[in-house]
Design brief:
Layout lengths: L2 E5 L3 H12 L3 E6 L3 H5 L8 E2 L1 H10 L10 E10 L2 E16 L2 H14 L3 E4 L4 H10 L2 E4 L25 E8 L10 E6 L3 E10 L2 E10 L14 H15 L1 H7 L3 E2 L5 E4 L4 E2 L3 E3 L5 E4 L5 E2 L7 H19 L6 H25 L5 H9 L4 H9 L14 H11 L5
Parallel strand pairs: 1-2, 1-7, 2-6, 4-9, 7-16
Antiparallel strand pairs: 3-5, 4-5, 8-11, 8-12, 8-13, 9-10, 10-11, 14-17, 15-16
Helix pairs in contact: 1-4, 1-8, 3-8, 6-7, 8-9, 10-12
């Protein structure tokens, strides 16, 4: 039986570990936190997962939250000086869901051990990777934004940004007025200021809403350093809405935090890293998930990417059979994932820039064309469907001319 070591017990690492256990592999999982520490800790992400990613969990029988609040669609609004210039919404063909990782990961850790996996609690460093390599056929680093993941070399050709493009904040709340008609990710673009989106989720205390703020660094949405307490963080969240997105403020003005650890702030440059880490001994480790492909959350693809990475790696490991897990395998394994992720990265990075004229035209066209709105909405489930349409103004024009005026 081949033995796989995985450092990092998050969406990518645990999903892969559970999949490999089901395939008959021996798996050692290294986490720097116990399940209880995760459950009692701070929120870590917004993790809105669309149906193709959820299908990966259904296949493994680890979709334990089918009764969680569904995310049934996408609403887009362009807001300028407090006035909504355009707004439209469309339903997803199949709902998305967001499960607080403080709920999800402890349950998956329990399932991992129940299925026969070995869970070790330690803050792994290079020496630990060396030791893990001596006992395992393959070592994978899925530590997300952790320090060990940063040992992987930045891929300059695939990483156009070397600085954070947004100041980020999350606010988990109860008491928001529900959206009419159907639930949705309400995405608000505020030119020159940033973006705000909000959607339903499940947290430790039950159904909630997650408010996500993406402020242009140095701009009026980038004042989180002054919000040093949970109450101050909530007050800053509401200040931004009242001033820049008043329609959303009306839904949110009476909210309260889900808990004192239901807030998060930070910033990081979107980065693609080379997938192979050479240890001091010359042994190799393979990076996965956020360790090698860290996206800005503006398109809501982070947890989805992690899920698809786990599925791609699992398939590559199975197909490799009994052959050595050498550098050639590791590069092929990552490229198998990159064949999908490159579209997500391209779309996400473009969303961080001022939108080109043909994309603005598309977003306005969706207000008049249900077909365009449905196409854009369901692209969140599989961003590859946006390409090559969004890359070329002529292709965009042809697409819009074909679909404008058609029924949904």
């Amino acid at each position: 039986m081949r033995k796989i070591g995985i450092v990092g017990a998050g969406q990518a690492g645990l999903q892969l570990g559970l999949g490999l256990l089901a395939d008959g592999y021996e798996v050692v999982m290294v986490s720097n936190q116990t399940a209880d520490q995760i459950a009692r800790g701070r929120v870590t992400s917004s993790q809105c997962m669309f149906d193709r990613a959820l299908a990966n969990e259904r296949e493994l029988g680890i979709d334990f939250w089918e009764d969680a609040p569904p995310v049934e669609g996408i609403q887009f609004a362009l807001v300028q000086e407090g006035t909504t210039a355009v707004r439209w919404s469309s339903r997803l063909d199949k709902p998305a869901r967001s499960i607080d990782q403080r709920v999800k990961m402890p349950r998956w850790m329990e399932e991992f051990e129940r299925a026969g996996g070995e869970l070790r609690i330690e803050d792994a460093g290079l020496d630990d990777l060396e030791a893990l390599h001596r006992e395992c056929d393959l070592v994978i680093v899925a530590s997300g934004k952790g320090e060990i993941g940063k040992l992987f070399q930045r891929d300059a050709e695939r990483s156009p940004f070397d600085k954070p493009q947004r100041s980020l904040a999350l606010t988990y709340v109860h008491g928001m007025v529900p959206r009419e008609k159907h639930s949705a990710v309400n995405f608000n673009l505020i030119p020159g200021v940033g973006e705000y989106f909000v959607f339903p989720a499940l947290t430790l205390s039950g159904p909630c809403e997650i408010m996500v703020f993406e402020g242009i660094p140095g701009g009026p949405m980038d004042r989180w350093a002054e919000a040093r307490t949970p109450d101050a963080h909530l007050a800053e969240s509401l200040r931004i809405l009242k001033e820049y997105v008043p329609a959303e403020y009306e839904r949110a003005k009476d909210v309260e935090l889900t808990d004192d650890l239901g807030t998060l702030t930070g910033r990081f440059p979107p980065t693609v890293r080379k997938p192979i880490l050479t240890l001091p001994s010359g042994a190799l480790a393979l990076g996965m998930g956020d360790s090698v492909c860290l996206n800005d959350p503006i398109t809501g693809q982070g947890a989805n990417n992690a899920s698809h990475c786990a599925s791609a790696y699992r398939a590559a490991i199975l197909a490799h059979g009994d052959r050595p897990f050498d550098a050639a395998f590791m590069q092929v394994c990552f490229e198998r994932y990159w064949d999908y992720a490159k579209f997500v990265v391209g779309w996400t990075n473009n969303m961080l820039l001022p939108p080109p004229e043909h994309m603005v035209k598309t977003l306005f066209a969706a207000a008049d064309s249900p077909r365009v709105a449905r196409w854009f909405t369901n692209g969140f489930n599989d961003p590859r469907s946006f390409f090559p349409t969004i890359t070329d103004p002529a292709l965009t024009d042809a697409f819009l001319n074909e679909r404008q005026g058609e029924a949904a």
